[in-house]
Specification:
By secondary structure, this protein is of the alpha/beta class. It is about 25% helix and about 25% strand. The protein has one domain: Purple Acid Phosphatase, chain A, domain 2 (4-Layer Sandwich), CATH 3.60.21.10. It contains five helices and twelve strands. Helix 2 packs parallel to helix 3. The model has no long low-confidence stretch (mean pLDDT about 95). It holds the Pfam family Metallophos.
Amino acid sequence: MIIAHLSDFHVGEFKFKEKLLKKALNQVKNIRPDVVIVSGDITNNGYYQEFIEAKKYLDEISEIIPTITVPGNHDARHVGYEVFEEVIGPRSGVLKNKNKKFVVIGLDSSEPDLDCGKIGREQQKWLEKELKKAKNKFKIVALHHHIIPVPKTGRERNVLLDAGDILESLVKYDVDLVVCGHRHVPYSWNLEGCVFATAGTVSSPSLRAKNPNSYNVYLVNEKEIKVKLCEVEGKMKILGKYKRKNG
């Protein structure tokens, strides 16, 4: 199974790198993944016209590859959380593949006009209900905000407010892979057999140190989960290899 994970387009940002985004989308098409996950901040200010433009890019992929997109904190600005639903679709949802081997559960971690994130009790209950139904499938959870602090991102201030509660649910219901964005720094961990991976930004100029614009690709077989970092204008390298729980 191949999963492509893109994040943080920031359409509308000053010096937004449109050429890089288009290049990344073409690369993903050539990879031909089973599913594409877009983990938020597709816009920079949550403005209607930014969403219209972002949807054009998303449609390039979603028309040929199953795609799930969740909102980020920038998407929730200026009543953008309502526009997201109108233009992009539901802020949370479930995506299943035809042969029913995996399921992707998308969560809305955004709060209107705030940079911090939260899942909340009701959405957590819904998450657990969907995880119960997934049973023995490969379970993927996607959200914008990171649950575990990301190294080399400075002072921690935007981690999920209810991270502890959500972590408990993820471990309790044997989630295999959790993907997010937000900090523009790619990284991966293994916690209790669950792989957590953050993606960098595909097309924003807001980069830390010498980090390039990038996206992640996950290669999954019966025994392991391999996390690949794909530089849009550079090399591809392995971020981590992890044994599957039941591999």
